Protein backbone atom coordinates (compact mmCIF):
# COMPACT_ATOMS: atom_id res chain seq x y z
CA UNK A 1 0.00 0.00 0.00
CA UNK A 2 1.33 3.41 -0.93
CA UNK A 3 2.03 5.76 1.92
CA UNK A 4 -0.21 8.84 1.96
CA UNK A 5 1.89 12.02 1.95
CA UNK A 6 1.75 14.13 5.11
CA UNK A 7 2.48 17.85 5.05
CA UNK A 8 2.78 19.23 8.57
CA UNK A 9 3.27 22.77 9.82
CA UNK A 10 4.93 23.36 13.18
CA UNK A 11 4.02 26.88 14.26
CA UNK A 12 6.49 26.72 17.18
CA UNK A 13 6.12 29.66 19.63
CA UNK A 14 4.48 31.95 17.08
CA UNK A 15 1.06 33.48 16.98
CA UNK A 16 -1.39 34.91 19.45
CA UNK A 17 -5.05 34.10 18.96
CA UNK A 18 -5.76 36.58 16.18
CA UNK A 19 -2.78 35.41 14.08
CA UNK A 20 -3.62 31.74 14.61
CA UNK A 21 -7.24 32.22 13.59
CA UNK A 22 -6.21 34.09 10.46
CA UNK A 23 -3.71 31.42 9.49
CA UNK A 24 -6.19 28.60 10.14
CA UNK A 25 -8.90 30.28 8.09
CA UNK A 26 -6.49 30.81 5.20
CA UNK A 27 -5.34 27.24 5.37
CA UNK A 28 -8.86 25.95 5.17
CA UNK A 29 -9.26 27.50 1.74
CA UNK A 30 -6.02 25.88 0.52
CA UNK A 31 -7.02 22.40 1.65
CA UNK A 32 -10.48 22.14 0.15
CA UNK A 33 -10.93 18.94 -1.85
CA UNK A 34 -7.45 17.57 -1.11
CA UNK A 35 -7.87 13.97 -0.15
CA UNK A 36 -4.74 12.37 -1.58
CA UNK A 37 -2.57 13.82 1.20
CA UNK A 38 -2.84 14.62 4.88
CA UNK A 39 -2.31 18.14 6.19
CA UNK A 40 -1.47 18.72 9.86
CA UNK A 41 -0.73 21.80 11.93
CA UNK A 42 0.81 22.06 15.38
CA UNK A 43 -0.18 25.44 16.86
CA UNK A 44 0.85 26.67 20.33
CA UNK A 45 -1.22 24.99 23.07
CA UNK A 46 -3.06 28.21 23.91
CA UNK A 47 -4.78 28.43 20.53
CA UNK A 48 -5.45 24.77 19.68
CA UNK A 49 -9.02 24.88 20.85
CA UNK A 50 -9.94 27.96 18.78
CA UNK A 51 -8.09 26.65 15.74
CA UNK A 52 -9.95 23.36 16.05
CA UNK A 53 -13.25 25.23 15.86
CA UNK A 54 -12.15 26.99 12.70
CA UNK A 55 -10.99 23.72 11.14
CA UNK A 56 -13.86 21.54 12.41
CA UNK A 57 -15.37 20.79 8.99
CA UNK A 58 -12.02 20.03 7.35
CA UNK A 59 -9.73 16.99 7.37
CA UNK A 60 -6.80 19.07 8.67
CA UNK A 61 -5.21 17.26 11.61
CA UNK A 62 -4.27 19.17 14.75
CA UNK A 63 -1.25 18.34 16.88
CA UNK A 64 0.34 19.53 20.10
CA UNK A 65 4.02 20.50 19.94
CA UNK A 66 4.77 18.21 22.87
CA UNK A 67 2.82 16.04 25.30
CA UNK A 68 3.14 14.56 28.77
CA UNK A 69 2.84 10.81 29.36
CA UNK A 70 0.22 10.99 32.09
CA UNK A 71 -3.46 11.76 31.67
CA UNK A 72 -3.45 14.12 34.65
CA UNK A 73 -1.57 14.87 37.82
CA UNK A 74 1.07 17.01 39.48
CA UNK A 75 3.15 17.85 36.41
CA UNK A 76 3.38 21.64 36.49
CA UNK A 77 3.86 23.16 33.06
CA UNK A 78 2.94 20.02 31.13
CA UNK A 79 -0.03 19.30 28.86
CA UNK A 80 -1.57 15.85 28.99
CA UNK A 81 -2.71 13.75 26.04
CA UNK A 82 -6.24 13.92 27.44
CA UNK A 83 -6.08 17.72 27.40
CA UNK A 84 -4.78 17.74 23.84
CA UNK A 85 -7.66 15.55 22.72
CA UNK A 86 -10.11 17.69 24.65
CA UNK A 87 -8.82 20.76 22.79
CA UNK A 88 -9.33 19.04 19.42
CA UNK A 89 -5.87 17.62 18.67
CA UNK A 90 -5.28 14.04 17.63
CA UNK A 91 -1.49 14.03 17.34
CA UNK A 92 1.63 15.35 19.05
CA UNK A 93 5.19 16.20 18.05
CA UNK A 94 7.63 14.42 20.33
CA UNK A 95 11.36 14.91 20.71
CA UNK A 96 11.67 18.00 18.51
CA UNK A 97 15.31 19.06 18.44
CA UNK A 98 14.43 22.35 20.13
CA UNK A 99 13.03 20.34 23.06
CA UNK A 100 16.11 18.15 23.12
CA UNK A 101 18.65 20.96 22.75
CA UNK A 102 17.10 23.91 24.60
CA UNK A 103 15.17 22.02 27.27
CA UNK A 104 17.40 19.02 27.81
CA UNK A 105 14.88 16.35 26.81
CA UNK A 106 16.65 13.00 26.78
CA UNK A 107 16.00 9.94 24.64
CA UNK A 108 14.33 8.22 27.59
CA UNK A 109 12.04 11.18 28.28
CA UNK A 110 11.13 11.25 24.60
CA UNK A 111 10.28 7.54 24.78
CA UNK A 112 8.11 8.10 27.83
CA UNK A 113 6.20 10.89 26.08
CA UNK A 114 5.77 8.79 22.95
CA UNK A 115 4.38 5.80 24.82
CA UNK A 116 2.00 8.08 26.74
CA UNK A 117 0.77 9.66 23.51
CA UNK A 118 0.06 6.24 22.00
CA UNK A 119 -1.60 4.96 25.15
CA UNK A 120 -4.07 7.85 25.06
CA UNK A 121 -4.81 7.41 21.36
CA UNK A 122 -2.73 10.19 19.82
CA UNK A 123 -0.60 9.88 16.70
CA UNK A 124 3.02 10.37 17.76
CA UNK A 125 5.38 12.25 15.47
CA UNK A 126 8.81 11.25 16.66
CA UNK A 127 11.43 13.84 15.65
CA UNK A 128 15.04 12.78 15.24
CA UNK A 129 18.08 14.37 13.66
CA UNK A 130 21.79 14.99 13.96
CA UNK A 131 23.62 18.23 14.78
CA UNK A 132 26.18 19.76 12.42
CA UNK A 133 28.98 18.57 14.67
CA UNK A 134 27.64 15.01 14.55
CA UNK A 135 27.30 15.13 10.76
CA UNK A 136 30.82 16.47 10.32
CA UNK A 137 32.14 13.69 12.56
CA UNK A 138 30.37 11.14 10.30
CA UNK A 139 28.10 10.12 13.15
CA UNK A 140 24.77 10.90 11.46
CA UNK A 141 23.58 7.31 11.06
CA UNK A 142 24.67 6.32 14.57
CA UNK A 143 22.76 9.23 16.06
CA UNK A 144 19.64 8.47 14.04
CA UNK A 145 19.76 4.82 15.02
CA UNK A 146 20.23 5.65 18.71
CA UNK A 147 17.38 8.18 18.72
CA UNK A 148 15.07 5.78 16.87
CA UNK A 149 15.78 2.73 19.00
CA UNK A 150 15.51 4.71 22.24
CA UNK A 151 12.46 6.68 21.14
CA UNK A 152 10.60 3.52 20.11
CA UNK A 153 11.71 1.30 22.99
CA UNK A 154 8.84 -0.94 24.21
CA UNK A 155 6.61 0.08 21.31
CA UNK A 156 4.90 -2.85 19.57
CA UNK A 157 4.63 -3.31 15.82
CA UNK A 158 0.85 -2.92 15.95
CA UNK A 159 1.27 0.55 17.46
CA UNK A 160 3.44 1.74 14.57
CA UNK A 161 0.40 2.64 12.49
CA UNK A 162 0.07 5.59 14.92
CA UNK A 163 3.70 6.67 14.62
CA UNK A 164 5.26 9.07 12.10
CA UNK A 165 9.01 9.66 12.08
CA UNK A 166 10.26 13.17 11.26
CA UNK A 167 13.88 13.45 10.16
CA UNK A 168 15.02 16.97 10.96
CA UNK A 169 18.77 17.58 10.71
CA UNK A 170 19.40 20.21 13.37
CA UNK A 171 21.76 22.15 11.08
CA UNK A 172 18.96 22.62 8.54
CA UNK A 173 16.34 23.96 10.96
CA UNK A 174 15.66 27.66 10.52
CA UNK A 175 19.01 28.16 8.83
CA UNK A 176 17.89 28.24 5.20
CA UNK A 177 20.26 25.29 4.62
CA UNK A 178 18.21 22.36 3.42
CA UNK A 179 19.68 18.91 3.29
CA UNK A 180 20.00 18.02 -0.39
CA UNK A 181 17.31 15.66 -1.52
CA UNK A 182 20.01 12.96 -1.79
CA UNK A 183 21.17 13.56 1.81
CA UNK A 184 17.58 13.43 3.04
CA UNK A 185 16.79 10.31 1.01
CA UNK A 186 19.88 8.57 2.39
CA UNK A 187 18.79 9.31 5.97
CA UNK A 188 15.19 8.29 5.30
CA UNK A 189 16.20 4.99 3.69
CA UNK A 190 18.43 4.30 6.68
CA UNK A 191 15.59 5.09 9.10
CA UNK A 192 13.35 2.66 7.23
CA UNK A 193 16.09 0.05 7.41
CA UNK A 194 16.33 0.46 11.20
CA UNK A 195 12.52 0.27 11.47
CA UNK A 196 12.57 -2.98 9.50
CA UNK A 197 15.11 -4.33 11.96
CA UNK A 198 13.07 -3.18 14.96
CA UNK A 199 9.74 -4.43 13.62
CA UNK A 200 9.04 -6.17 10.32
CA UNK A 201 9.72 -4.99 6.81
CA UNK A 202 5.97 -4.75 6.11
CA UNK A 203 5.56 -2.47 9.10
CA UNK A 204 8.60 -0.37 8.18
CA UNK A 205 7.18 0.04 4.68
CA UNK A 206 3.97 1.50 6.08
CA UNK A 207 5.55 4.10 8.39
CA UNK A 208 5.57 7.63 7.07
CA UNK A 209 8.93 9.37 7.33
CA UNK A 210 8.73 13.12 6.78
CA UNK A 211 11.59 15.59 6.28
CA UNK A 212 11.98 18.87 8.15
CA UNK A 213 14.54 21.67 7.91
CA UNK A 214 14.11 24.77 5.74
CA UNK A 215 11.39 23.22 3.57
CA UNK A 216 10.13 25.87 1.13
CA UNK A 217 7.88 26.02 -1.92
CA UNK A 218 11.08 25.94 -4.00
CA UNK A 219 12.45 22.64 -2.65
CA UNK A 220 9.35 20.63 -1.76
CA UNK A 221 8.93 19.01 -5.19
CA UNK A 222 12.44 17.66 -5.29
CA UNK A 223 12.20 16.34 -1.73
CA UNK A 224 8.84 14.68 -2.39
CA UNK A 225 10.21 12.99 -5.50
CA UNK A 226 12.48 10.83 -3.30
CA UNK A 227 11.12 7.33 -2.69
CA UNK A 228 11.46 7.36 1.11
CA UNK A 229 10.36 10.95 1.75
CA UNK A 230 6.67 10.80 2.60
CA UNK A 231 6.06 14.39 3.54
CA UNK A 232 7.42 17.44 5.27
CA UNK A 233 7.49 19.05 8.69
CA UNK A 234 7.62 22.75 7.96
CA UNK A 235 8.55 25.50 10.41
CA UNK A 236 9.03 29.07 9.16
CA UNK A 237 7.29 28.58 5.82
CA UNK A 238 4.21 27.19 7.58
CA UNK A 239 3.52 30.59 9.15
CA UNK A 240 2.75 32.15 5.80
CA UNK A 241 -0.47 30.85 4.34
CA UNK A 242 0.63 31.34 0.73
CA UNK A 243 3.92 29.52 1.10
CA UNK A 244 2.43 26.70 3.18
CA UNK A 245 -0.39 26.48 0.65
CA UNK A 246 2.14 26.03 -2.15
CA UNK A 247 4.00 23.40 -0.14
CA UNK A 248 0.76 21.49 0.47
CA UNK A 249 0.12 21.49 -3.25
CA UNK A 250 3.51 20.04 -4.11
CA UNK A 251 3.58 18.35 -7.47
CA UNK A 252 4.08 14.71 -6.75
CA UNK A 253 6.10 12.76 -9.25
CA UNK A 254 6.39 9.67 -7.05
O1 LIG B 1 11.88 22.56 12.99
C1 LIG B 1 11.24 22.55 11.95
C2 LIG B 1 9.89 21.97 11.89
O2 LIG B 1 9.60 21.27 13.07
C3 LIG B 1 11.80 23.13 10.69
O3 LIG B 1 11.83 24.50 10.81
P1 LIG B 1 12.19 25.41 9.52
O4 LIG B 1 11.27 24.94 8.41
O5 LIG B 1 11.89 26.81 9.95
O6 LIG B 1 13.61 25.15 9.19
TrEMBL record:
Domain of life: Bacteria
EC number in record: 5.3.1.1
Assembly: Homodimer.
Name used for this protein in its record: Triosephosphate isomerase
Protein family per UniProt: Belongs to the triosephosphate isomerase family.
Function according to Swiss-Prot or TrEMBL: Involved in the gluconeogenesis. Catalyzes stereospecifically the conversion of dihydroxyacetone phosphate (DHAP) to D-glyceraldehyde-3-phosphate (G3P).
Gene3D superfamilies xrefs: Aldolase class I
InterPro entries given in the database record: Aldolase_TIM, TIM_sf, TrioseP_Isoase_bac/euk, Triosephosphate_isomerase, Triosephosphate_isomerase_AS
UniProt enzyme class: isomerase
Pathway assigned to this chain's UniProt record: Carbohydrate biosynthesis; gluconeogenesis; Carbohydrate degradation; glycolysis; D-glyceraldehyde 3-phosphate from glycerone phosphate: step 1/1
Positions contributing to substrate binding: 10-12, 174, 214, 235-236
Keyword entries, A-Z: Cytoplasm, Gluconeogenesis, Glycolysis, Isomerase
Source lineage: Bacteria, Pseudomonadati, Thermodesulfobacteriota, Desulfobulbia, Desulfobulbales
Entry annotated with the keyword Transferase: no
Catalytic activity, as annotated: D-glyceraldehyde 3-phosphate = dihydroxyacetone phosphate
Amino acid sequence: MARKPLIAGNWKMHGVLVDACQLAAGLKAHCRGLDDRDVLVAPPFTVISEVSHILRDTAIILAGQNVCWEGKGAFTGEISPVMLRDAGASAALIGHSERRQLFGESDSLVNRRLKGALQFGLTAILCIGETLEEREANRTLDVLERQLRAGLADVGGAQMSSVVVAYEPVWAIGTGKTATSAQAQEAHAFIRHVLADLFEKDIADQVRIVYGGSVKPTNIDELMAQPDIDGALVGGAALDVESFGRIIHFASSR
